[in-house]
Structure formats: C-alpha cells, structure tokens
Amino acid sequence: MTDRYLDPHQARQRTPTTYEDLLGDAIERAFAAGVHDLAGLVERLNDSGLASPSGKAWTEAIYREEMAVLGA
Predict the structure, then answer these.
(1) What average pLDDT does this structure show over 32-54?
(2) Which of 30, 32, 35, 66 is disulfide-compatible with 40, CB 3.0–4.6 A?
(3) How far, in Å, CA of 47 to CA of 63, rounded?
(4) Is pTM beyond 0.85 here?
(5) 50 Cβ contact partners less than 8 Å away, ≥ 6 residues apart
(6) What gap in Å lies between CA 51 and CA 34, rounded to an integer?
C-alpha cells in the first residue's frame, strides 16, 4: 500500500476532464504571471479564450459558481 500522503492526487475521485485541465492550466498561468486577485483572474480567463460553462464571458460570480461545482 502506498502512503496516501505521498500521492499528489489523493483527493481525486476521477481523472479530470479536458475542460478541467484547460481551466487549471489557465489559472496556473494567471498565478505565474503574478495575478492574485479575483478580478484579475477573471480577466485572464476571458483573455485565454476558454469559455465559461455557459459559454458567456467569465465573471466573478460565474467563477465562484464553477469552483463550487468543481469542488463538490
């Protein structure tokens, strides 16, 4: 048995979808560029070309809703 604290995906219940991978990559790029506030993150997501789940531009409310869904 592997020590669960050495597993980088210990909380993962399933493999991420392509959308989840792309969203994570966009968020990581924003953080790497020094963006650390929600407004800046939302702006970077919109600049990335990755559509929100509804197909609309990202807003702070849409981002919060999506994080709640993905974190559930």
Answers:
(1) 96
(2) 35
(3) 14
(4) no
(5) 22, 23, 26
(6) 22
